[in-house]
Amino acid sequence: MKISEILTVDSVMLGVKANSKRQLLQELSKKAAEVTGIFERTIFDSLLERENLGSTGFGNSTALPHARIPEAKKVSGFFARLNAPVDFEAIDGKPVDLVFMLISPEGSGADHLTALAQASRILKDEATCDKLRQAGSKEEICALLNNHD
User: Fold this and answer.
1) Per-residue pLDDT tens digits for 88-113
2) CATH architecture of 3-146
3) Which one is catalytic: 21, 31, 66, 112?
4) Could you state, in order of their start, the residue ranges of all structural domains in the chain?
């Protein structure tokens, strides 16, 4: 599974404003609901349930929230760059400003794990993260993310 198969320009958010992890997850859920047609509250509750197991704050000011949702038709990726970092209870204690979120169908075991692995490789690459922070458009961000395929 390639990033280009799960992420589109419409799935990229720039200049996201959030004061907390919870508010950030709400903003992400709102965007995911627009794109997938799944109820925003269903997405938010699923993300929150996963976060309650342990933060998906990845380190390097990045996070990879994800959830499996029965109503999801396919694996969908979303990317957000925040205006200002928020505390995400990340493993390294640093606030988060780059987020890659995944929504997957409940029975998407291998596809979900492959997409998580792809996204985590991107978020672990400091040079790519620096470029994502400097990118001027959604199209540029999409191109950077897809270049990791």
Assistant:
1) 998 898 999 999 999 999 988 788 88
2) 3-Layer(aba) Sandwich (3.40)
3) 66
4) 3-146
